[in-house]
Write a structure and sequence with these properties.
Structural class: alpha/beta
Distance between the termini: 23 Å
Strand content: 15-25%
Largest sheet: 8 strands, parallel, barrel
Shape: globular
Strand order of the largest sheet: 1-2-3-4-5-6-7-8
Length: 223
């Protein structure tokens, strides 16, 4: 992930089929997320990831999302699926992430401001491609649509900027409020979007995808 930005990037997460991958890729997504956590309704196998990836443009990076998996499991899926980046979305420690020796994004599921202090632990790791802020939920590890509080994002940006780390935001981002997110955090690395463009978990809505990217390109061209 390059830190020299022309615009915030878009990551669409929870892709489970070829048709959704085709729509998302052709609309202009920079990253596509595959859920590699078997308890998720959006889970896909390594074989499915390979098949779905046939529909992706070459410039779209494939992110595999893991929750408290072992290093050996992550590496096996990474190789079988031909992933580009790993996303650690559980309680993995900074030592675990460093030991992985693969390009990764570390998700922090925040409940309060003090939760983001851990960002400092990832500075200087060349494999750390970014820090993802997602709102904590006791029911699910992601894709809940719950927003992270504004003051937490603001402070995380300061910490990431000081430590030369990219910051991604997830939670509650949609076509309806994208302009708000963009205007507040236009220097964010990427917006991570899932549930707001779904019919149900694991099935995207093409109309919502197109509307989201139409709004995104309109905002960017006028900024």
């Amino acid at each position: 992930m390059d830190t020299l930005l022309e615009r915030p990037k878009i990551k669409i997460c929870g892709i489970t089929n070829k048709e959704d991958a085709r729509v998302v890729s052709s609309s202009g997504a920079d990253y596509i997320g595959f859920i590699c956590f078997e308890e998720s309704k959006r889970y896909v196998t390594p074989e499915q990831i390979l098949e779905i990836s046939e529909e992706l443009y070459e410039n779209v990076e494939k992110v595999g999302v893991f929750v408290n998996a072992s290093i050996s499991e992550i590496k096996e899926v990474y190789e079988k699926s031909n992933l580009d980046v790993i996303q650690l979305h559980g309680e993995e420690t900074e030592n675990f992430a460093h030991s992985l020796n693969l390009p990764y994004i570390k998700a922090i599921r925040v409940r309060e401001l003090s939760d983001i202090a851990i960002i400092e632990e990832y500075k200087g790791d060349p494999n750390c491609r970014g820090i993802l802020l997602d709102a904590f939920s006791s029911k699910d590890f992601g894709g809940t649509g719950i927003r992270v509080e504004r003051n937490i994002i603001d402070q995380a940006l300061i910490i990431c900027s000081r430590n030369k780390l990219n910051l991604l935001i997830a939670g509650g981002i949609s076509q309806q409020n994208l302009k708000e997110f963009y205007s507040l955090w236009k220097n964010i690395y990427a917006f991570d979007i899932s549930s707001s463009v779904e019919v149900k978990p694991g099935l995207k809505d093409p109309t919502k995808i197109y509307q989201l990217f139409d709004e995104y390109h309109r905002i960017h061209s006028s900024s």
